[in-house]
Amino acid sequence: MPPLPLEGAAEAGVKIAVRAVGKVFPSGADSVQALADISLDVYDGEFLCLLGPSGCGKTTLLRVMAQLERPSSGVIEMRHDDPSRPLSAVVFQDYSVFPWKTIRDNVIFPLLQTGMRRARAREVADHWLAQLDLAGFERAYPDTVSGGMKQRVAIARALAVQPELLLMDEPLAALDAQLRLLLQEKLLALWQANQNTVVFVTHSIDEALLLGDRIAVMSARPGRIATVIDVPFERPRHPDEIRASPDFAALRDEIWHRLRRELQPA
Amino acid sequence: MIPVTRDSGAATAPRADSAAGGTTWRSITPGSAELDPRGYARRRRLLERGLAILVPVGLIGLWQLLASSGALEGNYFPAPSTIGSAWAELVESGVYQDSVVASMRRIVIGYLTGGLSAIVLGLVIGSVRLLRVALEPMISALYTIPKLAILPLLLLIFGLGETSKVLLVALTCFFVVLINTIDAVVSVSPRYGDVGRSCGASRWATLWHITLPAALPQTLTGMRLASGLAVIVIVGAEFVAADVGLGFLVWNSWNLGVPEHMYVGIVSISVIGVMANMILRGVEWLLTPWNR
Ligand SMILES: Nc1ncnc2c1ncn2[C@@H]1O[C@H](COP(=O)(O)OP(=O)(O)OP(=O)(O)O)[C@@H](O)[C@H]1O
Ligand SMILES: [Mg+2]
Q: What is the ipTM of this complex?
């Protein structure tokens, strides 16, 4: 798998252009360099996975893309095509559903911020809750449902606004292995139906291979893009077939070796 | 060694196999709470309710006995029955109702104006960093002043009328609620704010949908603390600066040497405190359905 050349990539079709982005967090007397010189293109409609060891700056990079944080150096350009849709929506790493709102109201909240009427927002919310198998729980409070359901609420909340760009930070990390498989299939099906551009942070190689068009592997702190890998599997993908294919095992080994190099100090 | 029985059908109590040699077994079995959970819960509830009622009733009975036997000095500790009939007299003459209404009016008006304005201001000060930095030291300084200490100043400015007393209650409640609200807003987890920002929520929407509900539980705790303080402070004010009210009733009965009336006033004040607490717990239950 040759890594895609970053320079000279076709400018057309680039949705996010990350150019030499660095991020330094001041902490007391000294400072933490979370990101160093990140350059990356995310193309229209692609599913890009960010893979890397814990603490390498995946969340930081995603937060910069979500405009929740500003870079210390470099620049990120994002193309906003359709002003009637929000540019981006985020699914956060920790459960960030509002405990004081019912599950339905959690999904309604961002819709209201886009100027949608409440009655319409309610319909849209119920549609997406049903998509994520949460029908019947609309009036429940998040703390009364399981962690997996809470995380599906967070995903429904992001999908409901139909953003051009979906930023997901380890949305499945806190779930048990079986539930995780089921939700991966769900996400795959939803993405294949909706085709937003997705940046998906994960530290699971399997997950990245299963979901991603490309995988950007990050190195340990300070975070850099170590390599970008094309995932050759055809779409629509069927999780079970992919996991069973010999290519899958080979790719997974290759990525693991690269990651291990990143993890081991030279 | 304990033999492991693979065939669960043939499992017998391992106890039988354990020979001597100092081995002891500890058996873990269902207790009465597990065997009859409903009955257990019912008995337990009955016992708890019963205790909550019987203990005070018993103590009052004891008091009655001691007082009527002469073991307690009647001038200081009149018998509960004496207090009861004094209460009836006060109700009959209308003095009691006047006192309760006067005190309640001061408490309710002062409490609501002070508490509610503190919630609004606290939300704003808590969410605007510069405001908070500018005002917080002053607020803590003012908070620590015992509010009764400024009663003379209020009397000087507003005279003996209702304004000074209502204002005293309002100021007392204001600072407690304000401090609690600011603290609650500041400690709202930033990840909720991140969700708001990533949705492009306006300042107003953030305040209404995120800051207010997230801060509400602690704000309501502040409101509950304030209700207790309101009662304390109004009694103090009525001691010296009122001619009607429960505080006045207590103080005046000292002047007149009628200890029964003193007790009527004291008990009524504590009942008001307890009721306020109950009402506010109800309000909490209504306003924070997610914490039920
Ligand atoms: N607000 C902050 N202040 C100071 N340091 C921070 C802050 N946010 C992140 N960091 C530091 O930046 C580095 C990268 O953090 P980040 O959360 O982006 O890692 P990550 O790749 O998402 O890790 P994980 O896989 O564990 O979620 C870490 O060393 C972290 O301590
Ligand atoms: Mg992270």
A: 0.87
